[in-house]
Amino acid sequence: MKKAISVILIAALLCIAAFALFGCNAAAGDYTFESATILGITFTRETAGEGAVTLKLNNDGTYIFRFQISTFSVSESGTWAKDGSAITFTDQNGGGSTATFEGNKLTWDYGSGRSFVFSK
């Protein structure tokens, strides 16, 4: 009986440890661009063009974001952290922005009248 309880406790601890290590990075991965609103103008994946906007959140807490529509382009990298449904981005220059991650949808308030929606 003691052995069975020990095995159950060890299994439970391993599950908790696995969640602590990997659960916080549930938002990590490659994202598909859905839409962007820039100064009141909305772009969709169809109007922006395939591959015009990319976002990758790496498991190590870094990210890469690229955006190229017409003459407006952004290429940045930095770090990201998730707390509940909130994601905080800090770019390579120390600037910050926030997003929400719910289900498979990431909505990023990039600031200055710009926002992006991605799906995973």
Secondary structure layout plus pairing:
Layout: H1 2-22, E1 29-38, E2 41-44, H2 45-48, E3 53-57, E4 62-69, E5 72-83, E6 86-91, E7 96-102, E8 105-111, E9 114-119
Antiparallel strand pairs: 1-2, 1-3, 1-9, 3-4, 4-5, 5-6, 6-7, 7-8, 8-9
Explained architecture:
There is one protein chain. With 120 residues, the chain is an alpha+beta fold. The chain has a single domain (28-119), classed as Lipocalin. It is built from two helices and nine strands; from the N terminus they run αββαβββββββ. It has an eight-stranded antiparallel barrel with strand order 1-3-4-5-6-7-8-9. It is globular. The termini are far apart. Residues 11-23 have low confidence and may be disordered.
